[in-house]
Amino acid sequence: MSTIKELEKKLLVMSKTPELFDAEIRAIKSEIVSLQSGPKTRTAWETVQLARHKDRPTFKDYAFGMFTDFIELHGDRRFSDDLAICGGFARLDGEPVMVIGHDKGKTIEEKGDRRFGCALPDGYRKAMRLMRLAEQFNVPIITLIDTQGAYPGLEGEERGQAEAIARNLVEMAQITVPIICTVVGEGGSGGALGIGVGDKVMMLSNSVYSVISPEGCAGILWRDNKFAPDAAEALKPLAESLLKLKVVDRVIPEPAGGAHADHAGTFAALKSAILEELRPLKKIVPVKLTKKRFDKFSAMGIYNE
Amino acid sequence: MAWFSSRKAAKETLSEDIWMKCPKCDKHIFKEDWQNSHKVCPKCNYHGKLTAWERIGITLDQGTFVETNKTISPADPLEFHDAKGSYKDKAAEAMKKTGLNESVVTGTGTINGKPVVLAVMDFRFLGGSLSSGCGEKILRAANHAYDKSIPLIIYSASGGARMHEGILSLMQMAKTCAGIARLNEKNIPYISVLTDPTTGGVSASFATVGDINIAEPGALIAFAGRRVIEETIKQKLPDDFQTSEYLLEHGFVDCIIHRSEMKAKLHQLLSFYSR
Ligand SMILES: [Zn+2]
Fold it and tell me: Which of B72, B97, B115, B158, by CA, is between 20 and 30 Å from A155?
C-alpha cells in the first residue's frame, strides 16, 4: 500500500506525458481519493445518505457564499419559472460566469415550491436559455448538480420532460463557452445530466451520481426497494468509481466531517478547483472546445468489440 | 396422423395453427393476417413489436442493407449482480435468445433508392435498453451519416437506460446526443421513429430530438413510468396519457404513421431533402 505522498510523486512524473498514462493517472487519482476519505468504513448506501444530508449547502448557499455579485435570472420564456433550477450571472474570484444549478431549497416552503430540487421541463429550458445567454456574453458556465431526478408528474410529461432534457444534451454539446459541471450532492439520472454535459465534470467527494436511484433500482431488479443498500453497492455511484470509469475528471475532497459540517471549507475547495480547471479552458478556441467536448463524451462507455 | 385422432385434438391444433389472440385487445385474429400486416392487429390497429430484422426488412429496399459494427457486444464494466444473478449471464442469455450482439442493429441501405443510415432498436434484447455498446453503435451511425452527408433514421424501442451498466449507461444519453448535435450543425436530416415502447433514458435522449419525430399509432412514449407518477402525485391520469396520440396533441411528434405506410412516407420526406 502506497502513501498519498508516494502516489502524488508518481502522479507528478506521469503528468508530464498524460497521453501515455491516462489509465494509470486515473487509477492513482482514484486511489488518492479513497485514501483521503480514510479507511473504508462507509458503505455506498451510507454515502448516498451523506449526499442527501439536509445540512449540505444548497444552491443559494453557493450562489451567495462561493460567488459574489450573483444576479438571479428567471423564467424559460415559454411557460413558467421553475424554481427547482436556479441561475444567473455571478463572479467567481472576480471572474464573470453564469452559474446554474438545482435548488432543493432550505425551508419547508422553499422545498415545496422547488419540489425538493426535482425540475420540470420549464427548469431545463430555463437552464438552456441561460446557457445561450452566457454564450452571448462570452462567459463560462458553471453548473451545480443536486437532484434526485427530474420531476415525475403529469405536467412534466405534458410539456415534454423527455424532450427538454434531450434538447439540453444536444445543445450543451454545441455551446461555445467553457462548461464546468460539478455534482455537489445527488446526481440523479437524466435530471442531473440535463445540466451535466461539460468540458470538465467534477464531483464533491461525498456526492453520488447514478443512472437510477438505489431505491428505484431495487424496486425493479430486486422487486422491493428495501434492498436499496444492495442496489447502491451494485450501481457504484461513488466519486472514486466514476473517476475510474472516466465519467468524472476530478474529485474535490470535502473538508473533514463532510460538506454539511463546513460550508466555508467546501466553498473554498470547490472554488479553487473550478478556477484551476477554468484557466486552460478559457484559452481554447470555440471550435476546438466543442470538438474536445464531443471527443470526451464519445469516449464514454465500456463494451466488447 | 396422431393429431387428427380425435375431433377435439384436431380442433385445438387447428386453432393454434391459424388463430392467435391480439396482445392488446385480446380478440381472436388470424395468424396469417397478423403476419401479413407485419404484426398489426386487424381488429384494434395495435402495432405489435417487431424485431430489428423484421423492421429492416419492411423499411429498406431488398438486399440493400449493409450492417455496420455488428461485433459490438456488452461488457460488464461494473461486475453487476442483482437478486436474480449477474449481468454477464443476462447479457449472454439475451445474445443467445435473439441472435443479436446488442439492443440495436445499425447499417446503411436505401429507401426507394434514397440512401440512409439506419439504426433499429430491438426490444427483445434486454428491453431494448441503452448500454455502452448500444450508445456506441448509435453514435457511430450518426458519425457515418455526418461523414457521408446521408440522412439518419433511428427506430427506437426501449425501456430506457441499462442500469446494469450504471453511470456509463446514463452517459450514453449525452454521447448519442453529441452525435446528433453534429448532424444539426451540418444540416443533415435526422428522422426519429418512435415505436412501442420508447421510455426513460431513450426518450430523454436521441429519440425525441429528431428534426422530424414520427410515431407509430398507440405507442407508449414516456419519460417517467405511469405507476411512478401515480404514486408520486396521486393524480388521475388521462386514458391516452403517454401515447403517440397524446404526444401529437401536445406538439412533440410531427405525425403518426401506420406501419403499412411508413416506408412510403419516409421516402416522401427524404425526397424533399436536396442538399
Ligand atoms: Zn387487437
Answer: B158
**Contact indicator for A212, A189 with CB cutoff of 8 Å:** yes
Inform me whether the C-beta atom of residue A270 falls under 8 Å from chain B C-beta atoms: no
Which of A42-46, A101-105, A271-275, A280-284 is the least confident region?
Answer: A42-46
A62 neighbors A92 (Cβ within 8 angstroms): no
HEC string for A187-222? EEHHHHHCCCCCCEEEEECCCEEECCCHHHHHHHHH
Q: What residue of A is the nearest CA neighbor of B132?
A: A301
- My answer on whether B135 and B266 are in the same domain is yes
B104 strand-pairing partners: B121
How many residues comprise chain A? 305
Structural domains of chain A sorted by starting position, each given as residue range(s) with its CATH number in brackets: 55-298 (3.90.226.10)
Q: What whole-number distance in Å separates Cα of residue A2 and Cα of residue A27? A: 13
CATH number at residue B122: 3.90.226.10
Based on the domain organization, do B38 and B113 belong to the same domain? no
Q: How far is C-alpha A20 from the chain's CA centre?
A: 27
Which helix (H) or strand (E) segment is A108 a member of?
helix A108-113
Does B31 share its domain with B164? no
Of A154, A159, A217, the CB nearest to B237: A154
**A124 interaction partners in chain B (CB closer than 8 Å):** none
Domain housing B194: 47-273
With a threshold of 0.85, tell me whether the complex ipTM lies above it. yes
Largest interatomic CA distance in chain A: 56
Within this chain, do residues B15 and B68 fall inside the same structural domain, yes or no? no
* Cα torsion A51, A52, A53, A54: sign: positive
Half-sphere exposure of B155 (CA within 13 A, CB side): 31
Instruction: Please check whether residues B129 and B172 belong to one and the same domain.
Output: yes
Please report how many Cα atoms fall inside a 13 Å half-sphere around the Cα of residue A220, on the Cβ side.
16
- pTM of the prediction? 0.93
Cα–Cα distance for residue pair A168/A186, rounded to 1 Å? 19
Asked if the C-beta of B95 comes within 8 angstroms of chain A's C-beta atoms, the answer is no
Q: Are residues B153 and B269 in the same domain?
A: yes
Q: How many domains does chain B have?
A: 2
A105-112 contacts, C-beta under 8 A, 24 or more apart: A105/A58, A106/A58, A106/A60
Q: Quick check: A195 and A85 in contact, CB under 8 A? A: yes
Cα separation, B145 vs B156, in Å, equals 17
Q: Residue range B135-146: average pLDDT?
A: 98
CB contact B10 to A (< 8 Å): no
CB B174 within 8 A of CB A193: yes
pLDDT digits (tens, 9 = 90+) for B165-213: 999 999 999 999 999 999 999 999 999 999 999 999 999 999 999 999 9
